[in-house]
Amino acid sequence: MSETSTPPSIGDMLLATVPMAKTLNLVFEEAGAERAVVRLPDQPDYHNHVGGPHAGAMFTLAESASGAIVLAAFGDQLSRAVPLAVSAEIGYKKLAMGPVTATAELGRPVAEVVAELDAGGRPEFPVHVAITREDGAVTGEMTVVWTLRPNK
């Protein structure tokens, strides 16, 4: 009987290629073309001065969730374009304590972005991310604008 290997998940690929995500022990719970969910466990080494996750750790969490959705949505375009973050804006809304979860949603239809790429453009598209505590309270919101830069 031969063993079949399953291809690596998007989370596995990100952890292998983005050292910061691995350093923070991010857990990729879901990674699809319309939604990605990534969790930052509660880790004292990454706490701020009030005992919650450091702002930089939450930024990395949210940006990683946005990257997961980008890879899920546009992974089939990697032979002709590279995804790059263009800008990111984050707002911290409430005190985050304990583990936090980032949920990312794509801000433009995949087909629309690919059509722009097909037409020779360099499409930009937002990914909106909500960061929540275990009780469901939104502690932060981030928008990352991504582009697909065509290969030359």
UniProtKB/TrEMBL annotation:
Task: Name the domain of life.
Answer: Bacteria
Gene3D superfamilies attached to this UniProt entry: Hotdog Thioesterase
Q: Which SUPFAM superfamilies match?
A: Thioesterase/thiol ester dehydrase-isomerase
Please state what the protein is called. DUF4442 domain-containing protein
Q: Which organism is it from?
A: Streptomyces klenkii
Please name the taxonomic classification of the source. Answer: Bacteria, Bacillati, Actinomycetota, Actinomycetes, Kitasatosporales
